Structures are given as structure tokens and as C-alpha cells.
Amino acid sequence: MQQSPVVEVAGYRFASPPLLRQALTHRSHSADHNERLEFLGDAVLNCVIAAELYRLYPATAEGDLSRARASLVNGHNLCALANELGIGPRLLLGEGEIRSGGAQRPSMLANAVEAIIGAVYLDGGFGAAQSFTLQIFYDSLKNIDLRVAGKDAKTLLQELLQARHLPVPRYVVIATAGEAHEQSFKVECSVPEMNIKTQGDGASRRVAEQMAARHAYDLIAGA
Fold first, then answer.
1. pLDDT, tens digit, for every residue of 19-56?
2. Is the distance from CB of 147 to CB of 170 less than 8 angstroms?
3. CATH class (in words) of the domain with range 153-221
4. CATH architecture of residue range(s) 8-143
5. Global confidence as pTM
6. Sign of CA dihedral 119, 125, 131, 134
7. Under DSSP, is residue 120 helix (H, G, I), strand (E, B) or coil?
8. Which residues are catalytic?
């Protein structure tokens, strides 16, 4: 039996506890779920992060700011924030979602963070939502590198090699598995001039290439 959620998240105490409960409620649990709050929170989140990036980087072009914002508000980063905030165990889920591990599902955790931001907005107004968002994104904003933010791994690797006057990397599918409708791919990324070969796996060739490129980029950038 799941416990009712407490009325505080990351130091913000809700004047209206039902808003937090709704933000933590998946549609599998009840009709009073968090999807509308998620919609609202997504808009507030993008506005707050855009405004903060605009303030922090007055000389940065729009394209770079857009990529930086995308890298901060993407599902991967939101999921990481949810784990830091301990959101998973507090989610209210239906029995089927509990059995299937819904509390650890990245998309569900990311959606909950957006819903909580929406709930804070309704509970305390825009100023409260802004303060809350900037607090939980403090480390992400402090550590963001505008040179690489929002760029995919293949682009980063190609730019890194070009800066060193080296040819573009080579990608080869070295294995596939599974039926046609649910194949998995293993791709090798090679940079012969640096004697580097890395591998990546994924449900599509593109995903596998990105993973292999990320491994190669990390090797070269960290050398």
C-alpha cells in the first residue's frame, strides 16, 4: 500500500497539498492524474530556463541558447533530477505500473518533474515556480558547456576531429539481432588515424551509431 506523499519537495512546502499529490499521480492510479500539470510545468520550465540562459549569457547567439535549453530540459536530465529529488518512490501508480517498475521508468520520472513545477506554479505563482526551478537546476546551469550543449554525439565527434585536422569517423554495422520488427544493432565507430575503435548498441542503427560516437568522443576529449 503506497503512502500519501508529503507536502514538500526540495524545500518548497505546498500550501495546497492536493496539488503535490496530483503532480505525483500517474493516470494508472486515478482520474485525478498529473498530465495537465505536466503540460503546464513544461511551459513554465522552458520559460524559466530560457530567461536564465538569456541572463547568464548576454553575448550568446539564439541558436546556441536554444541548444543549451534543449540539453537542460530533455528527458534524460529531468530523469536525473527526479532521482536526485527521490521522486520515484513517491509516485502514485496503479498496480500494473507498480509491478512493471513504473517508478523507475525515465519518461515517467521526467514527466513528474514537469508536473511538480506546474503544481508549484499553481500553488505559489510564477515567482515561486521560478525559484523552485532554478534551485533544482542549479548544478545543471552552473556546469553547462555552451560549446557542446544540445549537440548529438556524432556531431561533437566530427567537430572534434575536424579541429584536429583529421578525417571524419567511420561507422560500420558489425552485428544485428532479433526479428525484423524488433531488431537490435551493434555499430563500430573507428578513427584509424588515432587507432580508436568503439562500439555502441541500440534499437536502431542511428542510436547505436550515437552511442559508439559518444564512447569515441569521451576517449579523445579525455586524452
1. 999 999 998 898 899 999 999 999 999 999 999 999 99
2. no
3. alpha beta
4. Orthogonal Bundle (1.10)
5. 0.70
6. positive
7. helix
8. 42, 114
